Model the fold of this input.
Amino acid sequence: MRPRPDFFIAGALKCGTTSLFTYLRAHPAVFMPANKEPNYFCGDLVAHWPDGALFRVGILAEYEALFSTAPPQALTGEASVFYLYSKLAIGQIMAHNVNAKIIVMLRNPIEAARSLHAYHWNNHLEDVRDFEQAWRLQEPRLGGRHLPPRWPYPQLLQYGAQYSYAPQVRRLLAQVPRKQCLFLLFEEFFADPSRQFARVLDFLGLPPDPARTAFPVVNQTVGVRSLRLDRLLRQPPPALLALRHAAQAFGFHPMRALRRLNRVAGERPPLRESFRAELEEYFSVDVAELEQLLGRRLWPSLQSAAPSVMRELN
Done:
């Protein structure tokens, strides 16, 4: 039997991977486990997390069982977006299947970091609502300070490191033949999803999916309609807690329902101009190296932030 899976969506977080996973999983010639994020190969990040903190399969037999119901001729794949960030995962993937194909989706790192922060906040994994303040807490958090009680994992609150793509892509290309890698940009993918999805199918050697006529965005980060209600639900008074317990006895979850009603898709508030300039400078050196690695231009606003660096690399 051939080793499985045949391909991996390896990263990065909040870069459109859930949408791509959804599109590929629906393809008639593809089998992907229902659970995104098995994270089997990134033990350096999740080995010490408690059960339930992140979906993870830690035993090879359990991992292989995820693919046990795949049709014999199906192309198999999985999506675990911590694989790119992990320092161990790619090497272990290639040891598992030397012919594995790796798909990586990247996004403007400023917008990706903001989206991840908003995702963490909405899911109670971040207790600092303001992105600029959370950004400045990265170093103290590495020292164990100011960690959210429900997500005390400092490596996964490093918004800068997670979106410094160049070291991650360099590590990937050192271990995987270039022909087995496909790099997609979030901005290009959702500007023309039909064409970009066709690129993915061609890379995987798959025929077109005749049923795929729409490309909805999946797992879009959302905001809240009312900040006051959001604060109330995060720190409910005793009376509301008593009401919740009484309602749950009848199978109703009022807090959960209120959270759903309070969520809304929308634009995040603009960054302070000086803070955005700081972020552009922070990421510009990394993006300049990434452009060299990938052999193409990327995000214009980050190119202009480090012209001297670009000259040195060229």
About this structure: The longest helix spans residues 273-294. The radius of gyration is 21 Å.
